Amino acid sequence: QKEVEQNSGPLSVPEGAIASLNCTYSDRVSQSFFWYRQYSGKSPELIMSIYSNGDKEDGRFTAQLNKASQYVSLLIRDSQPSDSATYLCAVNPQTGANNLFFGTGTRLTVIP
Amino acid sequence: GAGVSQSPSNKVTEKGKDVELRCDPISGHTALYWYRQSLGQGLEFLIYFQGNSAPDKSGLPSDRFSAERTGGSVSTLTIQRTQQEDSAVYLCASSLGRSQETQYFGPGTRLLVL
After folding, report:
1. CA B16, CA B80: separation in Å to the nearest integer?
2. Of A72, B22, B82, B111, which sits most exposed with the smallest number of CB within 10 A?
3. What does the pLDDT look like over B15-49, one tens digit per residue?
4. Which of B35, B20, B38 is nearest to B86 (CA)?
5. CA–CA separation, A52 vs A32, rounded Å?
C-alpha cells in the first residue's frame, strides 16, 4: 500500500466551478500535510499546509483534514484556467521525520 | 530574495558514466532535501541534510548514489555508473528547519541516461 494516494485524474472542471482534490494516507500518526501545485515542466510550489483537523482557508483555496479517516482534501473555488496544473499531496509521516511522502498527483484542467 | 538554484538544468549522459548534480539552497536554510521525480510518478525522497547532523540517507536507491553538503550550504548529488532507470528529474528543496516547515523547491535537473 502506498503511503499517500491520489486519484491521478485528469480532473476537468469548467471555469468558475469548484475543483475538489482528494488524498488519503496510510500512516495514522502523520502530523503535517501539504498541498503543492506543479505546472508542467516546473518545480512544485506550496499552496497550503494543514496540521489539525478541520478546514483551513486561504483565498480561493480550502484545505480539509480528517485524521480519523486519514483523508485530506483541497478545494479550489472559482477555478481559473491558470489553476490548471498537477496538485501533489504530501504527508510528513510522523513528528521528527525528515522527509515528506508525496502522492503521484492529480492533474487538474480548468476549461474556459 | 534568491530561491533554490540547481545546475545543470539538463544533463544527457551515456550509461555507465558518473554525473554530479548541484544544489544551492536558500540562504539561511539549514535543511536540504533531494528528491527524484520520474515520469508519471510522485516525488521520491532520496536524502536529507540538517545542519551539521549526519544526513538521512534512507531514500537512496542504491550505493551508486551519494550526496554531500559542504559548509552547510551547497550540496552535490553524485550518481556513479549511471543506468537508464536513473533518468528522471532530480529536485532539491530547502527549508528553515525540519520537514514540518515549508520546503522550497529548486527548478530541478532533468537527467537523461542514454
Report:
1. 7
2. B22
3. 999 999 999 999 989 999 999 999 877 889 999 99
4. B38
5. 8
In order, the DSSP letters of A36-63 are EEE-TTS--EEEEEE-SSEEEEETTEEE
Show the cell assigned to A52.
489539525
Q: How far is CA A59 from CA A22, A63, A111, in A?
A: 19, 11, 21
Cβ of B99 and A42 within 8 Å? Answer: no
Report residue B51 as a C-alpha cell. 545542519
Q: Which of B99, B102, B105, B110 to mutate to test the interface with A (most CBs of A within 10 A)?
A: B99
